Structure to design on (332 residues):
């Protein structure tokens, strides 16, 4: 048990280090490609850091043909949007207040209103369809159409984001591989740094999940509970770490785009896979988590629509939805 705890800390350190390397590389790459912050945060960073939690359910569903494996797969698919829309929002809002108290920034979030409303609207649309699709148990053709529609919908989202107007990336730091390895700052080195960071990130996330799973199983936690709570907390660490790093640097558009962009991705590709390759019977714990994720995202979107701005306290309300979920689990 002690070894498992030590390895948990080691894997967490790997994820944190990878996040620092990744955010540095993705900023410079986006700047070199003349992409605005909305594209870098919502697409490049979001998809890159979503790889760990996307791979886990696919492996569970395709290569393990047992009922428990399908539970893990569906739970991980439903758990990722829930963690992003609740815990990630809360951590980001709390990070703003902590960095403001330390004098490193103000409490005002400098966000891209159009980008955030776009991302949250797509998320609510995609994830709402995913929940409705859970009612199509015996309608294989309809489920196939929903899965295909979600994949095509994500490419539609990419097109809309690419055509949007946004703020350019400012105050780009030197490439980490240039600073510490004395390598030139060119396109191949930037890509190598990104691949290295993602490899370290995925490796660290899988180690974290493995050791958390070991501890949880020893404590008697069920497969579904593990996959919908503990696994997503671990695999969503890259998004959370990236966003905290960017919040500390006052790059709020990148920080928020990383989370909301990941929400859009997680509500399309992994969900489409679940709809297509599992019974996709969302009820009980997964259904409650999905409803709370939709509620949290709706609250933030309504605030944006009404106030045309965002503050850390609204983001921290995601913690209340997470608390409601924990209470629900305790009372079951």
């Amino acid at each position: 048990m002690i070894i498992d705890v030590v390895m948990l800390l080691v894997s967490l350190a790997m994820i944190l280090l990878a996040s620092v390397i990744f955010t540095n590389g993705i900023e410079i790459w986006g700047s070199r490609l003349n992409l605005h912050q909305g594209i870098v945060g919502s697409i490049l960073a979001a998809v890159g850091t979503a790889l760990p939690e996307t791979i886990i359910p696919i492996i569970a569903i395709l290569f393990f043909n047992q009922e428990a494996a399908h539970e893990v797969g569906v739970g991980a698919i439903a758990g990722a949007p829930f963690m992003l829309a609740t815990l990630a929002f809360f951590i980001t809002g709390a990070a703003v207040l902590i960095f403001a108290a330390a004098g490193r920034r103000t409490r005002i979030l400098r966000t891209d209103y159009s980008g955030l409303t776009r991302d949250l609207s797509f998320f609510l649309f995609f994830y709402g369809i995913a929940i409705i699709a859970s009612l199509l148990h015996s309608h294989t053709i309809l489920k196939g159409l929903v899965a295909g529609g979600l994949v095509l919908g994500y490419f539609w989202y990419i097109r809309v984001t690419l055509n949007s107007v946004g703020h350019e990336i400012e105050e780009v730091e030197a490439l980490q591989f240039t600073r510490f390895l004395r390598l030139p700052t060119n396109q191949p080195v930037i890509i190598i740094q990104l691949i290295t960071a993602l490899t370290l990130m995925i490796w660290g996330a899988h180690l974290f999940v493995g050791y958390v799973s070991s501890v949880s199983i020893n404590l008697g936690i069920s497969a579904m509970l593990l996959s919908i709570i503990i696994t997503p907390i671990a695999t969503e660490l890259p998004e959370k770490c990236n966003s905290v790093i960017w919040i500390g640097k006052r790059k709020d558009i990148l920080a928020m785009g990383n989370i909301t962009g990941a929400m859009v991705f997680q509500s399309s590709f992994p969900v489409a896979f679940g709809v297509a390759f599992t019974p996709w019977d969302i009820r009980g714990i997964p259904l409650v988590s999905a409803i709370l994720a939709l509620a949290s995202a709706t609250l933030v979107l309504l605030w944006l629509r009404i106030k045309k701005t965002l503050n850390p306290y609204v983001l921290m309300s995601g913690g209340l939805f997470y608390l409601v979920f924990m209470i629900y689990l305790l009372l079951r």
About this structure: The chain has 14 helices and no strands. The mean pLDDT is 84.
